[in-house]
Amino acid sequence: MSLRSLPEAKALLEAAGTVRRLWVPPPADSFGTVGERTGAAAEALPTLASGAWAADVRPLADEALELRSGLTAQPPERVLLHGDFRQGKVLAGERTPWLAVGPRPVVGERAYDLARLVLDRCEDLAAGPGPAAAARRRIAKLADSLDVDRDRLRGWSLFRAVETGLRHGAAGDRRRAELLLEFAGWL
């Protein structure tokens, strides 16, 4: 059973407790950095956004690239991150109530690790009333509960939503692409 099986508010609370335990000082030069990991994605964004289907999202792709550039220029901290943290990667455990699985370790700031969590269940937000306000509340709630800068969390969430959305669109999954890009627009 993963956190996705819980109601959203409870899942976010449990996710916050789980991810907090994961963040530790990084060992010396063992893992790549968030800047390195996102570099290839940033280079691919202009090409992904050049498709005819993506014409309306080019300004959003430009914003995502600008945000990423600023976020990687002066990272506020260096922490060992899970790298792919989201509700589906947190499973019920025996040693502890919840265990994070499938890490892609990377060194960077905590806001980067939370961005995928912000994107979780975006289809539920889209189906509910006031999705843009709900998305912003989710960022505020996570940032406040884990002492992360809201603007940095918003920036990483927008970058990851645009990058993932454009990749889905290029692969032919337009429904998922449109949902992620709409989510990015709410931010």
Largest sheet: 2 strands, antiparallel
Amount of beta strand: 5-15%
Proportion of residues in helical segments: 55-70%
Alpha-carbon distance between the two ends: 30 Å
| Helix/strand structural class | mainly alpha
Major sheet: order of its strands?
A: 1-4
Number of individual domains: 1
Can you describe what's shown?
The chain has 187 residues and is mainly alpha-helical. It has a single domain (3-186), classed as Aminoglycoside phosphotransferase (APH), C-terminal lobe (Aminoglycoside 3'-phosphotransferase, Chain: A, domain 2, Alpha-Beta Complex). The protein is built from 8 helices and 4 strands. It has helices at residues 8-22, 34-48, 58-73, 110-119, 122-127, 131-145, 150-170, 174-186, and strands spanning 79-81, 90-92, 98-100, 106-108. The strands form 2 sheets. Strands 1-4 form a two-stranded antiparallel ribbon. A hairpin with a 5-residue loop joins strand 2 and strand 3 (98-100). The radius of gyration is 16 Å and the shape is globular. The chain starts with 7 loop residues before the first helix and ends with a helix. The relative contact order is 0.18. The mean pLDDT is 93.
SSE topology:
Blueprint (H helix, E strand, L loop, with lengths): L7 H15 L11 H15 L9 H16 L5 E3 L8 E3 L5 E3 L5 E3 L1 H10 L2 H6 L3 H15 L4 H21 L3 H13 L1
Antiparallel strand pairs: 1-4, 2-3
Question: Key terms for this structure?
Answer:
187 residues, two-stranded antiparallel ribbon, 4 strands, 6% strand, 8 helices, transferase, Aminoglycoside 3'-phosphotransferase, Chain: A, domain 2, single chain
